[in-house]
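Re: that chain you flagged

S.,

Sorry for the slow reply, it's been a week of failed gels. I finally had a moment to sit down with the sequence you sent. For the record, here it is as I used it:
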Amino acid sequence: MLKKIISHSLIYGLGPFVPKIISLLMLPIFTKVLTTEDYGVQALMNSSTSLIGVLAMLGLQLPITNAFYHHTHHYKKRWSQFYGFLNIWMIFYSALLAVVIYFIVPIEAKENLYALILLNVIPIVCFGPADTFGQLYYQLNQKPKEVVMRTIVISFITIALNYYTIVILDLHYMGWFIANCISALLLHFSYWYPLNYILKIKPIYRFKRKVIFKGLSVSMPMIPHFYSGYLLGSADSLLLKFFLISTAQIGFYGFAASFGALMALAVGAINTAAAPIIMQQIKLKNYEEVKKITWMIQFFLLVGSSVGCFWLKEVFGIMVNNQELRSGYFLAAIFIMAHNYRPMYFGSSMILFYREKTKNLWKVTLGAGLFCLIMNSFLIPIYGIKIPALILFVSYLIMGYGTFFLKDYKDVAIANFKPWLWFFLTLFCFISVLIVVNFTVLYKTVITVLFLSSLVIYYFTLIKTKNKLI
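Prediction finished late last night. Pasting the structure tokens below so you have them in one place:
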């Protein structure tokens, strides 16, 4: 089982990371051409699209996933009904997205306002939720290569288009959005065709209202939960704009935050690989295995992210060809370490998702998001662009570990995850990174060896105990 998680994580994670690594290697080229204003426009646009992004699927990913497990023999018929309903809904969603972009586009990009709206809306209108259904099908059937091959090919196309539009055509921030629109159309089509003509999952527009209403009854209470992701991950850029922070400074902040997005991608790959396995173990009532899988992922992630952050100053010095952006390594380290909450949160929330005990999950997740929003509103005017990253770290800790104290979770708790132990270990690694990142190379090398040694010891402990993960 451990081997399957590792192999699938590598497929889900390393596949998309190959083009990401190439993108990092191209940073000296892009950062020489792009300005902090360009990064600022990108950050604000990403925030505006994320503002209502939670409404795109109306939270129906959960009932769609559960249909796969609870209606094994006829889940495709149920999926087709959700597919038809969401195709209709996304027409209205696209109109709403256009309105949001209209009001949030910064002054520096007003001249391209309508082009930006079209570039963001066209893929949604043309293909609807085809990519979501396609990815879920291959993920739940444990066929990661189908997802990853698409991701790799589209990622390389995006890199090539970015280079052509930004460096060759000198389109600055518009190059990103043109490249992303073309890439999104190709990705959506790559799922739309097999979904409709090979897997025979076609949208049913005369869907049964009972099926849709039942799905929405489960998903709608999840909207506040999913919206917390926006409050935590994207609202900060809009708050910076609200407090009249310049687009250039927002660009500096957004550039550092993009390294946190890479960390989110890595953790997401691990979670994607582990999700079907954990769900299967919950179904089989192998509860100790669920705990061991969660602990294993958490420990490996803490050590790996810490070691990577130790060397961010050196990485930025080599890769970033812009003196202003180069000083963002410390901020980037905070963003990366903020995502270490996710394995423990993932372990606890998977239990709630499987049991469909999600009615009160929003109290923790939205609570963390509101904490982030309120604290940023008070502290940004005083401390500027550096404080939101620290607030984000604290907010993610609240979300990651607060779930364990929900009554709904306690009622269905299947094992003792020892959340306090992992909470303090996460804090220890975070503080270590903030201190070590400015050490000399010699000290960093010694500390890196110590951290990696703990990883080796933990791995051989797993083997020695001969638990069922191996």
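What I noticed first: The first helix runs from residue 2 to 25.

Talk soon,
D.
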